[in-house]
Amino acid sequence: MFSYHEVNLYLDDIELPRPMSEIEKGPHEFNGDELLFLQQVKKHLLEDLDYEIYKSKPVYCIGTCRLNLTRIGLYILLEDELIFVHASAFKFSEESAKWLVSYYPYREIISLEFNDDEYNYGDYESGVLFIKLKNEKGAVRSKTIRNINPNHFECIREFHEKMQQERYI
């Protein structure tokens, strides 16, 4: 069974900010699903991102999450967007798993809400993030991201507020 807690402890120990190309912290003792998860995330980041553009961008927060209750993923907070790399929570370890990379630029995010009153900082996967954003057709859509490390809420909130201020200047 996949352990959000162990992976988040590992990711939380990475000294940030640092360029995306330097994110891998070094040796870890993962095996099984955790190791496979991290390998697949790295593989799909390299394949699906325009890595030459992203490799020098600083990463400010990184952690595991669940999207729509059925997808397991990793979120990466950059200066101007949130990136999620995710696959089915039930099939991520299968060769045929369909991995997706989702981009949420801050300029498209209308609001971010957190479950601030209902989490424990020591529990690395208790946070819930609610995102409202406009799609390319101007329609508002909502995303609920679960099992986020609540220690990253303030970082995400600060970047979103900065982008909102720049939007109205």
Description:
- This protein is globular.
- Helix content is 27%, strand content 33%.
- A 7-stranded antiparallel β-sheet has the order 6-5-4-3-9-8-7, sandwiched between helices.
- The protein is built from 4 helices and 9 strands; from the N terminus they run H-E-H-H-E-E-E-E-E-E-E-E-H.
- The termini are far apart.
- It has 169 residues and is α+β, with helices and mostly antiparallel strands.
Keywords:
169 residues; alpha+beta; seven-stranded antiparallel β-sheet; two-stranded antiparallel sheet; 4 helices
Q: Give, in spatial order, the strands making up the sheet with the most strands.
A: 6-5-4-3-9-8-7
- Round the Cα radius of gyration to an integer and report it: 15 Å
Q: SSE string, helix = H, strand = E?
A: HEHHEEEEEEEEH
Give the class from helix and strand content and strand pairing.
Answer: alpha+beta
Average of the residue pLDDT scores: 84
Q: How much helix is in the residues?
A: 25-40%
Quick structural gist:
This protein has 169 residues and is of the alpha+beta class.
List the helices and strands and how they pair.
Layout: H1 4-12, E1 18-19, H2 32-48, H3 51-54, E2 58-59, E3 61-67, E4 71-77, E5 81-88, E6 100-105, E7 109-114, E8 127-134, E9 140-148, H4 153-168
Antiparallel strand pairs: 1-2, 3-4, 3-9, 4-5, 5-6, 7-8, 8-9
